[in-house]
Amino acid sequence: MKKHVISILVEDRFGALARVVELFTSRGYNLESVCTGEAERKGVHRMTLVTLGNDDKIQHILKLLKNIIYVWEVRLLSPEQTISRELILLKLKVPKDQRTQILTLIQAYEGNLIEMNQDHITFMVTGSASKIDGVAEVFGDYEIHEMARTGEAAIHK
């Protein structure tokens, strides 16, 4: 199955996200990530959905999305013509003897330190989905207290 990134502009209305998600779930599609927030126009939100599927089924989903009442625009984003980023927040329980090592790794991934206390280091890293996958894998070797990922946000180049 192939990864597909879909950008949708929707009217900022109660239930708009639920209608879009229901379209996927009712057809047995899993959404790998959903990222939504204000778009460039007032009263409009941009949703970025990442899903896996074959091209024919995705084309069918795109047609169905265009028929949802609050949807203004639906665009399948090609990897070559897309700028996308994801954010990960990590809170690690770090013994004092590993702090330097962790801080070096954070710097290597161009992360930003948010908070450090006696027991924990909290930081964030932004980048492509594959970079964030790598961050999650590398820091998975340490004791993760909490982790949150935003999902991909994407725009057309």
Question: How would you sum up this structure, described in words?
Answer:
By secondary structure, the chain is an alpha+beta fold. It folds into two domains: 2-77, ACT domain (Alpha-Beta Plaits), CATH 3.30.70; 83-156, ACT-like. Chain A, domain 2 (Alpha-Beta Plaits, 2-Layer Sandwich), CATH 3.30.70.1150. It is 27% helix and 45% strand. It is built from four helices and nine strands; from the N terminus they run E-H-E-E-H-E-E-H-E-E-H-E-E. It has helices at residues 16-25, 55-66, 99-108, 129-139; strands at residues 2-11, 31-38, 44-53, 71-77, 82-93, 112-116, 120-127, 143-149, 153-156. Strands 5, 6, 7, 8 and 9 form a five-stranded antiparallel beta sheet that branches. A four-stranded antiparallel beta sheet has the order 2-3-1-4, covered by helices on one side. The longest helix is centred in the middle third of the chain and has 12 residues, at 55-66. It is elongated and about 55 Å long. The two termini are 25 Å apart. The mean pLDDT is 94.
